[in-house]
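User: What would this chain look like folded?
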Amino acid sequence: MLVTLSIESLTSLQYWKNSYMDGMQRSNEATLGDFLQHLATFLRAWMSDPLGVAAVSPSGRQLAGLMVRELPTTNGPIVELGAGTGVFTQAMLEAGLGREQLLVLELNPTMHSLLEQRFPGVRTLCADARKLSEIARQQAVAMGSVDAVVSGLGLLSMPRSVRLAILGQVFKLLSPTGRFIQFTYGPLSPYPQALLRRHGLSVRRVGFAWRNVPPASVFVFQREDSDAVT
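Assistant: Here's the prediction, encoded as C-alpha cells.
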C-alpha cells in the first residue's frame, strides 16, 4: 500500500512530534527514535484498519488544546475514548490531570500497547466504547460520576446505530453536569440537533482546528439542564 503525505500532513506530524518530545523530555525519556517508533505504530494500525483508525495522521497540538480547554476544573474521573497514540492523553496530563483520574480506552491492540508503554500508571484498556458502562463498573467507576468523556472516535465513519449506542453509554456514565467532548473532521456534528433534543441533550461547537489534517471541529454535548462552561 502506498501512503502519501501532503505538506499539511507533514505539518500536523511536526506538531505531534513537538508535543510528544516536549512531554517526554519532562521525564527525560524522549528520543527521536521513540517518536519514529510510535509514528510507525500509528501508520501500521492505519494501514491494517483505515476505517477503524479514521484518521490520516495523529491529532495535532491545536486540536488537543481545544479539547483539553473544555475539561471541567473538578477532580472527578475523566474517560478517554479512542485514544490512538495518546495525543489527548498527553495533553490532559500536561494540563494537570492526575494519572489516577484517567480511564483510557483504545480498541486497536497495536495502539493500546503503545499507550501502555507511554503512560505507566494510567488505566489503559483495549476495549470497545459500546461496552463503556460495563467496563466502568469493572474499574470501580460509578454511573453518573464522570466529569467528562473526551473522544477521538471517528463517529462520522460509524453506522448510526453504533453512534447512538456510544452516546447512550457516555451519558450513563456522565454526571448531571458532565460533558462529552468530541471532535469531527469538518463542520458537522456527529449527532443532529433533532436527535439530541429528543434525548434532552444540547450541543455547542466550541472550536475549529484549522491546522489539523484534516481540519477538525470540536463539539461539547451536555444535558440541556446542565450549566454550560464558558
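The mean pLDDT is 82. If you want, I can go into more detail on any region.
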